[in-house]
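Before a colleague's protein record goes any further, I have to sign it off. What it holds is a sequence and that sequence's fold in token form. Would you go through it and say whether the fold makes sense for this chain? The record follows directly below this note.
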Amino acid sequence: MTEGIEARANPAQMALSVGGRLLLALYFLLPGISKITNFEGTAQYMADHGMVAIPFFLILTIVLQLGGALCLAIGYRVQLTAFVLAGLVLVISLIMHDFWNVEDAAQKAHEMQNFIKNLAIMAGLMVLAGGPQKMTWSLLGRKAG
């Protein structure tokens, strides 16, 4: 079935596929860099949300965000990368954007907005993880899946 998709892929589809993948990569690259440059502030934010083993999970998150961004950007193992990043976004959403535990109305609305936004990011990652990858360009000169 994917062979037919590959045959029908046109330059516009390729551009949209690559552009979407690059925007998702940017979504993980910038926060990954921010976590490095503001390590202590991020650790405090995690502590404020009741996170445990903060140094371990913060470093793991940085590695996943930066490594995932690189893989998405160059088209390396896109399906696996998207699946792992979708899991990361799910965990971050449940722990860090737990709007159901927030009392202040403005903060609750902010956390709910972040949670819903993350659901949309997860949806895009799930499409990448489960979709046809033969129409996705890779810097490595092979299929991006």
